[in-house]
């Protein structure tokens, strides 16, 4: 059955921009200060999940009280926000501006759905906030990815149904969340996104007409 695509919903980090290095440096600084082992490989396990879940994975079973957990998350966020001062409009990933421009010209609604509580700050630093009709972030829902809640909440803000929206993700947790929510999914990169309906290696491979053609073929299958 043919399905009309009405909206594109984008994850932020790794899809719109690549602030993963900022996250790594911030968590690494915290881990070093607290004597916790933390590597770039460990950081890959933090992709797409909330700040609290990231801390849980960093702790690797180590028990800390709630007050300490909150203080550590706040400190990590302060490090991260400080690094965001380096972000400029040039930080938009290759091919994204062209994809967004083509999608808007075609009448599609656009949104961000990110576990980050700094999503609006990042979008403002990139000078693209006005391009999106809605922004779902770490404040929008209680259950973040891999739960589908954030994508469903964002689709609701756009007034579109999940089967009429395409989610762009670069993390396993995000792909899982979008699939559970009933969305079409474009997986970007190699971070366990192979369950997505469409796969591209990098954002510069995204072409609006090509992508819509691929999706049309899938939705008619």
Helical/strand content category:
alpha/beta
Judging from the principal axes of the Cα atoms, what is the shape?
globular
- The number of strands is 6
In the CATH hierarchy, the third-tier topology of the largest domain is known as: Rossmann fold
Strand order across the largest sheet: 3-2-1-4-5-6
* CA(first)-CA(last) distance: 7 Å
Mean pLDDT: 93
Largest sheet: 6 strands, parallel
Query: Would you state the CATH class of the largest domain?
Result: Alpha Beta
Q: Provide the number of structural domains.
A: 2
Strand content: 5-15%
Identify low-pLDDT runs: none
Describe the structure.
By secondary structure, this protein is an alpha/beta fold. The chain has two domains: 141 residues, 3-Layer(aba) Sandwich (Rossmann fold); 65 residues, DNA polymerase, domain 1, CATH 1.10.150. Helices cover 45% and strands 11% of the residues. The chain contains nine helices and six strands, in the order E-H-H-H-H-H-E-H-E-H-E-H-E-E-H. Strand 2, helix 6 and strand 3 form a beta-alpha-beta unit. Helix 1 packs across helix 4. The chain is globular, with a radius of gyration of 17 Å.
Short description:
By secondary structure, the chain is of the alpha/beta class. The chain is built from nine helices and six strands; from the N terminus they run βαααααβαβαβαββα.
């Amino acid at each position: 059955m043919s399905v009309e695509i009405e909206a594109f919903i984008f994850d932020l980090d790794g899809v719109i921009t690549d602030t993963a290095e900022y996250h790594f440096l911030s968590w690494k600084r915290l881990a070093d200060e607290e004597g916790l082992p933390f590597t770039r490989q460990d950081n890959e396990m933090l992709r797409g999940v909330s700040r609290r879940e990231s801390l849980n994975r960093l702790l690797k079973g180590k028990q800390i009280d709630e007050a300490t957990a909150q203080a550590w998350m706040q400190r990590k966020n302060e490090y991260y926000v400080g690094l965001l001062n380096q972000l400029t409009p040039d930080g938009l990933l290759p091919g994204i501006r062209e994809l967004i421009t083509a999608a808007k010209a075609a009448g599609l609604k656009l949104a961000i759905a990110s576990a980050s509580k700094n999503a609006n700050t990042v979008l403002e630093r990139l000078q693209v906030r006005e391009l999106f009709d809605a922004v779902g972030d770490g404040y929008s829902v209680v259950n973040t990815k891999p739960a589908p809640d954030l994508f469903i909440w964002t689709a609701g803000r756009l007034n579109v149904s999940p089967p009429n929206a395409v989610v762009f993700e670069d993390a396993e947790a995000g792909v899982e969340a979008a699939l559970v929510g009933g969305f079409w999914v474009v997986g970007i990169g190699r971070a366990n996104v192979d369950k997505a309906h469409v796969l591209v290696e990098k954002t510069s491979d995204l072409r609006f007409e090509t992508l819509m053609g691929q999706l049309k073929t899938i939705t008619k299958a």
